[in-house]
Amino acid sequence: MISLRKIRAFVAVFEEGSFTAAAVREGATQSGISQQVKQLEEALNAVLFIRQGRIVEATQAGRQYYRECAGILKRLDRANQEISATGSQSGEVRAGLMPTFTRSALAPALLRFREESPGVEIRILEAYSGVLTEFVRKGDLDFAVVPALPAAVGLNISLLLRDREMLVSAKGRTGRHGKPVRLAEAGPLKVVLPGHQNTRRGNIESYFATNGVEIAQRLELDAMMGTLDIVRNSDWVAVLSSIIMAGDYDGRQFEIRPLVDPRLDVDFVLIEPARRAMQPAARLFADLLKAESERAVAAMAWGG
């Protein structure tokens, strides 16, 4: 008989790529997870994984079965919610956001959420995309917002926001706050960049190389508040998405200029566990966050 326990064990091994990691995730022993998967394979009369030492690779049958099993678990989760939950007025929301969103869209979205769902506990984790992605994949977060990433095992990915990149410098650096800028004509630049593990780093570097942007110095800094502080008080600049600068629209602290010829866009996506249905309260908060993000970006929609 194929039980939900066996299905969950199989899904955990598939998503973790390891019997050991799957056992940790499921709160079980490695031998117990192995036995569940073995019994499942016997019941199906099919090989789901190829085992070579510690390397576990899904077969074609395993990949096909995973898609069906993830869908089953998600539908079951949704059914349980519909029977036991009271909509968006109770429960707990666990969301992961990058500093890009906690600096701008979080506060208004969170305040609106508290008004609409006062009985819901909400927990926000601020971190960068790699950490957030891992937390979501393991099911420790209901969802997270990260820069666009390729399809990934164990995740559902949907577009939350399309934004554009801006050149950010100290107030009065050129006296052209809000005016489009062609970076090839603005160099040489002393630029603060995120680390190489950040998806945006590769996109920005490719933009520099493709468009003949002259870089005098690079400073790698994976600290958004630190980046802004350096830019505010020096001749260093940064390339940042418009949403994080929405609160500085008035130009009192920074000079913000949209990149043109060509413009550089950045997509942010919402990621959630493939095997779970998002709870109504989490969906409400995600929708409010999306609305506030779109509002902030619209306010920064200068020409070019």
Question: How would you sum up this structure, described in words?
Answer:
- The protein has 304 residues and is α/β, with parallel strands linked by helices.
- The chain has three domains: 4-84, Arc Repressor Mutant, subunit A; 92-160 and 268-299, D-Maltodextrin-Binding Protein, domain 2; 161-266, D-Maltodextrin-Binding Protein, domain 2.
- The chain has helices at 4-16, 19-26, 30-44, 60-84, 99-102, 106-116, 129-137, 199-210, 224-232, 280-299; strands spanning 49-52, 55-58, 92-97, 121-126, 143-147, 155-170, 189-193, 215-220, 237-241, 254-258, 265-273.
- Strands 3, 4, 5, 6, 7, 8, 9, 10 and 11 form a nine-stranded mixed sheet that branches. A two-stranded antiparallel ribbon has the order 1-2.
- The radius of gyration is 23 Å and the shape is elongated.
- The termini are far apart.
Give a quick precis of the structure.
The protein is α/β, with parallel strands linked by helices and 304 residues long.
Number of helices: 10
CATH topology of the largest domain: D-Maltodextrin-Binding Protein, domain 2
| Radius of gyration computed on alpha carbons | 23 Å
Low-confidence stretches: none
What is the overall pLDDT average?
A: 90
Please state roughly what percent of the residues sit in beta strands, choosing from under 5%, 5-15%, 15-25%, 25-35%, 35-45% or over 45%: 15-25%
Kindly state the number of beta strands.
11
* Strand and helix order: HHHEEHEHHEHEEEHEHEEEH
Q: Count the domains.
A: 3
Largest sheet composition: 9 strands, mixed
The geometry reads as elongated
Distance between the termini: 62 Å
**SS-derived structural category:** alpha/beta
